[in-house]
Fold these 3 entries.
Entry 1:
Amino acid sequence: MLGEGEDGNSEPEAKPERARKMNGFPEKILLATDGLENTTLAARAAVDLAEKGGAELHVVHVWIMVPSPHASNFIRSGLKESGHDTLEQQVRWIEEQGGTVTGAYLREGNSVGEIIAQAEEIGAGLVIVGSRGMGRLGRLAMGSVSTGLAHRSPYPVLIVREGEQEWPPEGVLVGYGSFEDTGRAGLLGASLGRALGAEVELVGVAGDGDDAQEKLRDVERTLESRADEIEEVVGLRPRVRPVVGKVARTILGIHAEEEKPALLSFGSKVLGGAGRVLVGETLDQVLSKSRGPILVTPELHPASKPRVLEHGETGAQEGPSVLVATDGSEVSLRAGGYAARLAGGLGAKLFALYVVDEQLLFHSGIHYGEFVERLSEDGREATGKVRTLAEEAGVECEEMIVLGRPDLSILAVAEEVGADPIVLGTEGKSRMEHALIGSVSEEVLRHANRTVLVVGGHPEVGRKPGERKRRSEAVNALPESGVTEE
């Protein structure tokens, strides 16, 4: 039953007839196991869903080599054998519970990356992973693997916390805050709810303010429309609950008030070409503060959708866009100001990008969740400053926070949103002492297939007051219709 990496497994044994496949339900489920003591409840959820939804169940375990200057071959062999035993024990446990394992896979390397790779190889529609509950500590940091999957996986991820006996859930809450990017979360959440015989409720949050009641009516109409769509596809009509407030706080409050175990289904944004889920404030809060199982369903970011609008017989483009990468430093803010004025002159949309370096996060170990939350806050602060500059220039601006390698992410996002040019600063440091703009700008310049504008670091040093004024006037006098390149 065991396979390694791409080798898969031997011919599967005859399997008992499964439940009839349900509309909207994933055809293949991948359970990521880290041993029975850490994945018992997650495995139970996987068996339960596969049986009731008529899906194939696959299992993967990733082992990691521990670097050692002595007897490395012996250590490697022992760790691999231990991983093999862990996988076999998990498969045996599933079969004892009456489940059927279609494929079992042993992989070596970074856990998050290898799990995603395995999901891609088998075409998984859902990844299930366990996470150690944080109890009275308020869950400030979830397990590094579960949090990493929630932020990086392009496939839906169900996180089941061990030690919290809330499976099976008796209800499913689908949280809506931005209706353009949570359609799949509703469909998948309702599909799982129907398979489990759980009640499904769509919770839509309208922002407060003077026009709160009008927004509330709009949210209610949108929820009813979504409920119609779900009923048509899944065969179950969810209840709807429009409320006014802050998205994360309101939905977490409703979830906490549930007397029965409930699964919280939430959407996240993903850039197709960039291959990384965007880290958002709402998602971060849900991951760190909610209790019980969480279903995170990535949605295609609107910027990843076709950018060409059909106008009669001419395929006119929706409009130009400019991308500026920021790390919150003074020089990157200078680049942000330049990019805002440039976008104004071009009549373009401005994208403000902050990259959370995944390598820095993986070195944080068990504090991964805390690092994600802290760096995401840094990112929102940095992109918020650029947005303020854009608003002052009368330019439309969208903030993006992406998990990945800075140089590759900048290039991938630029490609995905069709940005030209890319604007960078030459140097900069974040609060985490992580260099983003500097050596990164060199890599972007080397590999970009579009215009890259690099804004100097500290031009004011050593310059007389009169020169500073003339420089400021020159920078502000940007062309209003284009940029001249030599």
Entry 2:
Amino acid sequence: MLVDGGLAAVLAFLGIASSAAMGRLIAVPLVIALAVPVVFRRAYPVAAFAAAIAVGALQVLINSKPNPTDLAIVILLYTLAAYTPRRISITGLAICLAGSAAAVLRWMPDRLSMWDSLLVGSIMFAGPSLIAWVFGDSMRYRRAYYTNLEDRAARLEAERDAQAQIAAAAERARIARELHDVVAHNVSVMVVQADGASYALGSDPARARQALAAISATGRQALAEMRRMLGVLRRDEDGTEPGRAPLPGIGQLGELLEQTRATGLAVSFTVEGVPQPLPDGAALAAYRIVQESLTNTRKHGGPRATAEVTLRYLEDALLLRITDDGRGAAAASDGAGHGLTGMRERVAVYGGWVQAGPCPSGGYHVAALLPLVAPAPPAAYPDASRLGAA
């Protein structure tokens, strides 16, 4: 408003000076009345324009000659076009053109021909009005364009933040699954070994020492695996990723089975078909499914349970089947298991499936299918219910 006030003061000064020079001091009130609306042109563009038009109409009506302050009407038309919708500014332009025609008829000397009057009127009145409206309308268009760009940038930033939050939630879920698998398996092994050590402590010290050594090795393995997994949550001080060993996969199943056998659970292992390489994520999922299944067998199958792990390589998928002859579903649940949910989440990423439940002849089974390539329709693979009944 300070800038507009200065502009209004300049227009008023020029109008008063012109009126005083020509001895028309009666026009000073009209000069002031034309200049004042310029002060409020941004805050109230329609009202300021209407007030100036009313003063201009009075000026034509009483035949007060034009003066420099009449530029206020052109400035207010520009403001109307720049700050209001086009339908309003076009109305203002039409009013200005009509006023220009009236001014030409009122003020042009009689000695000028009609064409000369039209030419002079176009240059003095209609031309500036058209130019002011075009500039104001283009300013309004550019302002709307920049506003749309800012809104789009804000939406894109919000979408980017939402995607980052989704990715962070997915990463937390992945780490939670990994923690569950690592802790559940290794702590289960340590509990079994600790129980064995307590029973053998008095009668067989050598076996007790062996169990304690197994507890120590299992704990170190669990810590190493957790450090490897949680390494994604931190960076070195120089901003680089810390070195991490590869995550377990199919190649580490032998070590997993040996560790399981060391706890007293007899496990057989069979590979059918021609082994094929799996993506790292799918190989990790296969390892965790076998690990979780054997952990559940050790926890719920009973002291004399045995397990069988079968890997069947199909043409474009890996079929895992883990069965045991323990108590299975008849065992009491500890109420804290999320293993089956984690299995399904892992396999769903690769378009496969997981089926688990008691076997008809006793025991428990877990069957999972992991596509080796892009997910295929379910009909292309064996049905899970038939595998469970086999």
Entry 3:
Amino acid sequence: MNEWVKSIHTILCMVRFLKRRGTALKNVMDLLRELREDHDYSQSDIASVLGISQQHYSKYEKGEYELPLRHFITLAEHYGVSADYLIGRCSYDEKKPLEMVYVTRDCSCEKLVKDTLSLSEHGRMSVVEYIELQKLKEKQWSAS
């Protein structure tokens, strides 16, 4: 793995960790919702993966029903995370390969890194500047 990819992978792991800090360990309900939202899935999408109704899945996220082991296994495989991460025993899954980490529903970190690295030095700097600008905008939006 080249040094740029290693650096970006480390940064992404840190971002995931920082994004979830504030509580040492998340409960399963919060993790289910966050994973689903991070991947831009609806409750219906995940319910289909599990072979259940959206209403039934909603009760897992609300903590009204306990998630069965078979569904834990299915969700861990679907999201490409460890069981420890899914049950809240670790704050992020640092062993997750870049092709399994998604920035959006259709764009993996690996693709984003490859696309960014295919640009000229000037183009890569523009990407970094755009990200910094977007972070400032979101900080302003959240402050209002």
